[in-house]
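#onboarding

Welcome to the new folks! Below is a worked example of what a typical request in this channel looks like: someone posts a single protein sequence, and someone else replies with the predicted structure as tokens. Don't worry about understanding the tokens yet, we'll cover that in week two.

Example request:
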Amino acid sequence: MTEIVRTEGVLGGDPRIEGTRVGVLHIYELVVEGDYPPADVADQFGVSLGEVYTALAYYHEHPETVREVRRRHADAEERLAEEALAPPRPRQ
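Example response:
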């Protein structure tokens, strides 16, 4: 049976399909937000259709975890955008 795991140092600790680097959020974004068929997403990531559905179930069963992951991603994107727009600091 497919398990969703979180491992520090793998995919930033985000929930993922065990034995892969395929995150729950990756699956959700493609299937639900991107409107791709689950079978196509499974094929794209090289996982089973059951693993795709397990990831989707995890997304819906763990809303707090998903909110925390989305918050971390948004913070990282904001930080990177600020750094990209800021002029380099002179070396001292």
